[in-house]
Amino acid sequence: MDNFLDPVFLLEIFEHLIKYVPITLGLAVGTMIMSCLLALMVTILRYKKVPILGKIGDIYVLLGRALPSMILIYLAFFGIPVLLMAVSGTNKSAMLLSGIPPIAFAALGLTLHTGAYLAEIFRGALQSVNVGQTEAELSIGMTWNQAFFRIILPQAAVFATPMMANQFLNLLKGTSIAFMISVIELFGAANVLASNNNAYLEVYIVTACLYWSTSICFEKLASVLEYNLSYFKRCTSK
After folding, report:
1. How much is the average pLDDT of 193-197?
2. Which residue of 16, 21, 38, 63 pairs with 115 in a disulfide if CB–CB is 3.0 to 4.6 A?
């Protein structure tokens, strides 16, 4: 108890844990990028009502939102090797996968979970754009892809950005469950340090401050991004 909330001891904890912040950020940012790509692909399939694939997208969104992210990480970490062994009939595939770091399976599970939520966010954002704009753009000779990516998507991005920011903050905090498959990120390092020093309160206070400060920074970045994306709205309002 001699070091209870001792500033010097808290600084030592901070210096130790700050080294794991890039791992947490890398996992969160990488997962967010992959989730956006997956969600955009699913959203386009559902938006265009592509036969079969659109329905598969609906099922994915339903399951991805219904299953906890922890379950999806476990399914990726334990299920993929078993599935490959069942398909190939040998354990060579599983041996090859043993060289893949656990953080890759954590990113996959989190991507499947976050992508489903982003797909719904994108769908709602697209529905907020007047459908008559697409018809007008097609009538002047633009292709569907040109109309979608040049006109519709930039407008929908303005509506989607605040919800995407919230989803990213949830994802940033959700990376803590990657510790369950031996990924040593910020929360995992905090658990190890707390158990080694029996200083749970001090360690988790510092950990909370690191998560909080990181979240504040990304909230500010999201505000700037939303302001820049809404340029056309400010122009039309003048």
Report:
1. 91
2. 38
